[in-house]
Every structure is written in C-alpha cells, then in structure tokens.
Amino acid sequence: MAVPEESSASSSKADKARLVREERTIHLIPLLTFLCFLLLFLCSHDPSDADMSSFGGGVGGKSGNRRLRML
Asked: I need a labelling partner for 26 at 20 to 30 A (CA). Which of 36, 40, 54, 66 fits?
C-alpha cells in the first residue's frame, strides 16, 4: 500500500510545481505590457519639416497631404 501513497505524493508535488510556475508567469503580463509601451514610445517621434519635405510638404509644411503633416 506504500506505492499508491508515493504516487499520490509525487503527483501532488508535480501539481504544486505546476501551480507555482503558473503563478510566476502571471507576473510577465505587466512586464510585457510595459515593454510594448516603451517600444512604441521610443519608435514614435514628430517628423521635422525636413522629413516632411520628402513627401511634398515643403519646408513650411503648408502644402501636401494633411494626414502626412499630422504625423
């Protein structure tokens, strides 16, 4: 009868290990969210007039596509 107790004890340990791993992975969600916001922040910028001139916006930015000027 010692065999069933050992198998239930080992399965209990495996269940506890799985639960601990799941509890730790939940903490990755805020970290990944922060990293995504940081990446978006670092990649976004206001284009200068020189950048917009390649789209036909000119140095003054008065001509060209309004949507491109908003970028």
From this structure: 40
Q: Which SS3 state, helix, strand or coil, does residue 52 take? A: helix
Q: Write out the two tokens for 44.
A: 């976004």
Q: What angle do CA 55, 65, 70 make, to 5 degrees?
A: 90
Eight-class DSSP state of 59: T
pTM recorded for the entire structure = 0.43
pLDDT by residue for the chain (71 residues), tens only, comes to 444 544 555 678 888 888 888 888 888 999 999 999 999 999 998 878 887 788 775 555 455 555 555 55
> What tokens appear for 60 in the block?
């003054």
